[in-house]
Amino acid sequence: MGRRGFIATVLLGGTALTLSHLAGASSAAQTFEVTRTDAEWRAMLTDLQYAVMRKEATEPAGSSPLDKNYAEGMYHCRGCNLALYSSEHKFDSGTGWPSFWQSLPGAVETKTDYKLIYPRTEVHCRRCGSHLGHIFNDGPKPTGKRHCLNGVSLVFKPA
Questions:
Q1: Exactly one of 77, 125, 128, 148 is catalytic; which is it?
Q2: 17 or 122: which carries more pLDDT confidence?
Q3: Residue 125 and residue 41: Cα distance in Å, rounded?
Q4: What is the pLDDT of residue 116?
Q5: pLDDT single digits (tens) 38-92
Q6: Distance CA 147, CA 13 (A)
Q7: Which single residue of 66, 120, 134, 143 could bond 151 by disulfide (Cβ 3.0 to 4.6 Å)?
Q8: Number of domains the chain contains
Q9: φ/ψ (deg, to 5) at 134
C-alpha cells in the first residue's frame, strides 16, 4: 500500500483529523521564539488551522487553494508570519497539497514522525513550531525533496 493509501483521516465536525490527532499526539515540547498559550492559538486560528498547526492533523487533499497557486511571491507561516517558502521552489506534485522542493534557508526545522508506524520527516516553522506537513524523497531536482504542506498553515504574499 502506498503512503497516500495508508493515511487514514477521520472527519469530525467538518475538520480533518489524522488518527495521530485522535490519539492525542501534539507538537514536541520545545521552546520557540514566538510562543502563545493554547487559548491564544485557539482564538487566532480556525478549528482546522488549530488542528493542523498545533495538533499535527492533516487537511483534506485538494482542499487548499494554495495547491494550484503559481503566482510569484512568498509563503509565510500563518502562526508567526515568518517567510518559509518562495514561489520559485513550488511545483505541482499531483498530491492535492502545496509542494515545494526546498524551504528558505533557516526557515523550517524537522523531526521524525512515527504516527503512521513507519518514520516520516515532519516539517514545522522554526520560529513558532507550527506543523506544516512532511518532507518526502520523491521530489524534483535539484534536491529530490517534496515538502508536502498543509495550505491552512500558510499565508501567501504576492511579490
A1: 148
A2: 122
A3: 15
A4: 83
A5: 999 999 999 999 999 999 999 999 999 999 999 999 999 999 999 999 999 999 9
A6: 28
A7: 66
A8: 1
A9: -140, 160
Confidence band (pLDDT; 50, 70, 90) for 29? Answer: low
Provide the β-strand partners of residue 110. 123
Q: What's the Cα-to-Cα distance from 34 to each of 25, 48, 107, 144, rounded to whole Å?
A: 21, 21, 13, 31
Residue 10 bridge partners (DSSP): 17
Reported pTM: 0.81
| CATH code, domain carrying 79 | 2.170.150.20
Residue 148 known to be catalytic: yes
Bridge partners of residue 121, in order along the sequence: 112, 135
Q: Is 15 helix (H, G, I), strand (E, B) or coil?
A: strand
Domain hosting residue 136, numbered range: 3-158
